[in-house]
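Data card: per-record layout.
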Amino acid sequence: MKNIIIGSGPAGRLAGIELGKLGKEAILIEKKYIAGNCLNEGCMVICALNDIARFLNSKKRFENLGLMKGKIEIDYAEIVTKIKETQEFIRQIHQKENESLNNTIIYGEAIVEEDMVKVNGESFEYDKLLIATGSKPIIPNIKGNKYGLTSKDILKIDKIPENLNILGGGAIGIEIANIFSSFGSNVNIISRNSILKGIDENLVKFTRENLLKYVNIYENQNTVEIKKDKLITETDEFIGTTLIATGRSPNSEIVKDIVDLDDKKAIKVNKLMQSSKQNIYAAGDVTGGVNLTTIARKEGITAARNMAGFTSAMEYNKIPQGITLDMDLSYITKNNIKSNFNDKNITTNPNKNTNKNDQSKEILNEITIPGSGGPGSFWRALTRDTGLSKIKYNENTKEIEELYSISPSSISDISYLSYLIDNVNLEDFSEEFLDIHPSTNVFQEIFALLRL
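The structure for this 452-residue chain is written out next.
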């Protein structure tokens, strides 16, 4: 059985590991770096920079409380150097993981033909092929867009910009705005719509007023031109470097004439991660939907199992999400998940939520409380900035419908609380669930309130 994987990001890399564990050898073809966008240009770069930003913000907080004094200077060039060293170290680990399972890794640009892949002048026949080529930043059709940087260019900046204009009000733009405003840049967010569109308005309001309070936010602005040192909208001009963060599009060109694509150029797949050509699979950002590392990993593993002859189906019934800020904004919404994947022709488990149309399902209630005790929140209590948490639940069934949290520990809290959203009700959780204090303290308090 000849298995070829194109792309070694979270989807392709995990697919290779899964095939190896199942006793199937694979060839991984990678154009540039193993581990894909997440490690090399995306979320891990954001996390690394955010660690420094949080340190600076904590220092200011402790200084305001009179706990410490002293000036701290950061060296952005050295930060970039150390990030690149760490990336190289992690890439070596990822490569050894796959090679230890008898997989072959080839670096080069692949060309896909019917039943054959060409790379570096060599041809490889395949029985099963997985396309895991990820996505790329969307560059809007704006005059002077060549002067705009993207998230791929953050590690190419040689110093912290005095003025930074971020075009786009989604998660990527918000994360970058938080980082560079913490570093001392004057940051402007210029958004065509409202920021963080689709997220609970109370959490967006809190984020704007507390986590982005040093960022200038301009909504409902149409950008007409980008210059080398300026961004121009229909009503204003903003001096400084421009960074474009207007979304991502699938890297599907490699198979555009071989498999079916949707109207956004994403590869259409079924719940087995099969494309319209039965022996070609796709996983990760190239299939559209929510671009998350965790989803890409799961899809890659699912595809690999089916490639190896072990039937496995993807489910999208619970997807925790988070935005990396000084305090993370994390959430899971049962009702909004299915719409994210309509174009992917995914069928979720028919045995779950079969009574979704019952009238009892429509009787929702909610509780919102300030963030309470939890990891990293003790020294925030005096300044009343411990965050905000919210739960929406069914009054009759006590089933959890939506969870939102802004707190120092919200990402870890929401990650495994997302499991509970389909598996327990509120009474079970508040009475039976034990945890290591103070990890999910805020939600245990909410659930206790519901029992009063």
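Known properties of this structure: Residues 7 and 132 are 5 Å apart (CA to CA). Confidence is low (pLDDT under 50) at residues 336-360.

See the next section for split statistics.
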